[in-house]
Structure formats: structure tokens, C-alpha cells
Amino acid sequence: MEAPLYPQLSSDPSLPDPTYWVTPRHLAGDDDALADRVGAALSAADWWMWPTARDTLLYVSPSGLCGAEWTRAACPFELGDLPVAWQVSSRSHSTSALPEWNAYFTAGVPHEALDEFLRALDVRPDPASSFDGPETVLAAVCAQGWARDIDRPHSAAIAPGLSAGISLEEVPPLVRDADPRPGQFGWQAWAEPAVDGPYLWCASFSAGVPHDLVAIFAAALASPHPVPRSTLPAGAEGRLTVIRPGVDWRRRARGSE
């Protein structure tokens, strides 16, 4: 279940006052704060952090089983012509030389969705084991207004207005998994404010990422609740509902129906 990170108006003095509250979340961008917000959440969860020789920031969970690395400075590779910003990985044993799976997120991904994914990973006793099937991912987004792809109803779903999607696809090159065989399938997610336009963000999950963890990311991404932003992502302004602080977004939404 999604944690109420930002109620109607936050009273937390440590958070900056938002200029806007925006929806849909998948087009809200990262407010140019993806490193700071995710890093703060990991530090609050007692993940250890240190800078690497590649000018990246590496966080490791208290169990030693999970890692998250801010890789923007190193630019390891791109997804949808966007540089990967966070790489999240998990091992079955803290002494394992290689991770069981990896997940990659570009700049622009809403930090609320990545926070939920990492929070679920942090409390999971065995982050490398999978218990649910792909249906759990599709059910998570369709419960919040997304629709199954008519051509691939069992492996893909699309956001209203065709502005984002999530699908089970053959993983892109350089997306690594414990299973090295070619032709592995993993979840891919993206936002595309304009049809055939540039991507706002992309995310790629290797084949070994548990479906229920992907479902938590997807549910947070598709949540109808507005999020606070000080800046709006270029290219998405016309697709966003923008609400000024102090306006009841629920009343606004009902009035637009």
C-alpha cells in the first residue's frame, strides 16, 4: 500500500513548499530532485552510502543484500535516449559476487514510485525470490485506471491518453540478470507525453526482478493522487492537471467530470 508521503498540504518544515500539485503522476517528472529525494529516503532507512571511484554514490541496505547506485555521473548506458540515473540490485547472499537481478531508472522518473519500490525492497526478507506472476503487475495499474493493451492483454498496459505504458518485453542490451541466457523477458516502463515524441523517462527491470516488486512500483506510478512539484517537465505541461496549493484537488477533479 502506498504510504501517504504528501498529504493534502504537507506540514513538514523540512520539505520545500510546492509551487504546484500535479496529476497524472507518471507525467510529473522528478522535480530535478531524483538524487536528493531517493538518497534521503535510503539514508533514513539506514542504508550505508559511500562515493565510488566512478563518481557515483553507492547505497547498501543493512542486510547487505540490496544496493542502489546513483550512476548519473558515470552514464553507464541509456534507455530510450535517456541516461540511466539509478541502478538497483539484489543478491541472494551478502557474499554473492553477482546480483540476482538489476533494475534501471532514468532521470525524470517520479521519485515517489522509486521510493515505494525501494521501501518494499528494504523490508523484504528475501529480495531475490519471486512469488507472484506477471498478472499482479497488470492488475496493479488497471485497478487505477490504466487499460490492458488490446493486442497484448496479458503482458502490457497503457495509461490514459497513451501517455505511458508498462510491458513484459525482451530486455534491452546491457540490462543484466543472474540468468545470462539471451532472450530473457523483463518489465519495461516508460512515459511519452506526445505520441512519437521523446520519452520523459524509462525504467527497465531484468528478468529476475520479482513481479510483486514491479507491481508496487507500477501501482505508485499509476496512483491518481497528485504530487507536489516546483517545476514541470518540458513537453508534459499540456497533459498535466495543475492545482495550486490550497485548492481541494478532489473537488477540482469532480468539477471537471
Radius of gyration: 18 Å
Question: What fraction, in percent, of the residue positions are helical?
Answer: 10-25%
The structural class is: alpha+beta
Instruction: Estimate the mean pLDDT confidence.
Output: 86
Q: Main beta sheet: strand number and arrangement?
A: 11 strands, antiparallel
Question: How are helices and strands ordered from N to C?
Answer: EHEEEEEEHHEEEEEHEEH
DSSP, total strands: 14
Uncertain ranges:
1-16, 249-257
- Intertermini distance: 27 Å
Separate helix tally: 5
**Shape designation:** globular
Strand content: 15-25%
Description:
With 257 residues, the chain is of the alpha+beta class. It is built from five helices and 14 strands. Strands 2, 3, 4, 5, 6, 7, 8, 9, 10, 11 and 12 form an eleven-stranded antiparallel beta sheet that branches. A three-stranded antiparallel beta sheet has the order 13-1-14, with no helix packed on it. The two termini are 27 Å apart.
Q: Short description, anyone?
A:
With 257 residues, this protein is an alpha+beta fold. 19% of the residues lie in helices and 25% in strands.
